[in-house]
Specification:
The chain is an alpha/beta fold. The chain has a single domain, classed as Protein of unknown function UPF0759 (TIM Barrel), CATH 3.20.20. 35% of the residues lie in helices and 20% in strands. The strands form 3 sheets. The protein has a 9-stranded parallel β-sheet with strand order 10-9-8-5-4-1-13-12-11. Helix 11 crosses helix 12. The radius of gyration is 19 Å and the shape is globular.
Length: 333
Amino acid sequence: MKQGDLESFYFRDLHPNVFMGTASDRYAGWIGQIYSEERYGQKISKRSKTVGGRTVTEETLPVESVEEYFQHFAVLELDFTFYRVLLDTELKPTQNYHVLRTYGKHLGRDDRLILKVPQIIFAQKLWRGGQFVENPDYLNAEIFTRQFYKPATDLLGDRVNGFIFEQEYQRKQDRVSPDTYAASLDKFFQKIPQDDRYHIEVRTDSLLTRPYFTLLEKFGIGQVLSHWTWLPPLRTQFAKSSRTFLNASKQCVIRLMTPRGTRYEEAYIKAFPFDKLVDGMMSPDMVEDTVGLMQAAIDQNVRANVVINNRAGGNAPLTAQKIAQQFSEAGPG
């Protein structure tokens, strides 16, 4: 890859086994980096959002902008699927179904998506009415299969590169033993369609133990390596699995979400409006650890999907640029 490519935010040819992408897209703050002013400057929509007691105005581009996104990146994680299933209880399309279908219409043959599984399926507790409450549909295999997995694969086929099951952080009083946790996942994954595109992100360090990794090995599920608030460094997470990538399709997902020790609300407000890197925000070990994981994946002939959130440092394209530059200077392995 040429230096000019990195300066222009072109990451698709970084390495055959490296798929660089972001968590969500359509940010108006990326105009001039990923999106062109002349094409989308007049197509910005606005909405108010309250985060940490502060109200901000988000500016987003239309779904069609994904065509320009994929000129720069090889993979895109869609987060909106986390908040609602694709079909309702009567198996009628929800708004998320229509949005996902629109994305599908704008994808090229080699463009790939990573979808987050709805939280109603994989979150033990949900935020409702200003508090966390028990989720009655936790690990409901039928909801996953009928209301999410089947419509997603019907819409997108092999353009789905992966499914991420995100397990929320478990407070001490809510935690079960690692054995009990692994056993509950075993029952769930026995009931749902077998697929080699599954990846689990566990956000509670005490659950990253041998029973959990044995479960991943059994079903060929990938360990999401997540740079997130309360998790240990990426290199430490990888060491817990004996530096082994467990996904059956020989892929891994590296998610750069928030600086370690920084809560979502604080990171969001610091990063907003996501148009530049914020001095001192990025965890100092994040870029180095990410490059190390990319190199390890290449050494093991595994494809690394590196997914970057704006909250990891202020602006995802510029964070990608830093990672790509260090990777290019260090070499594949």
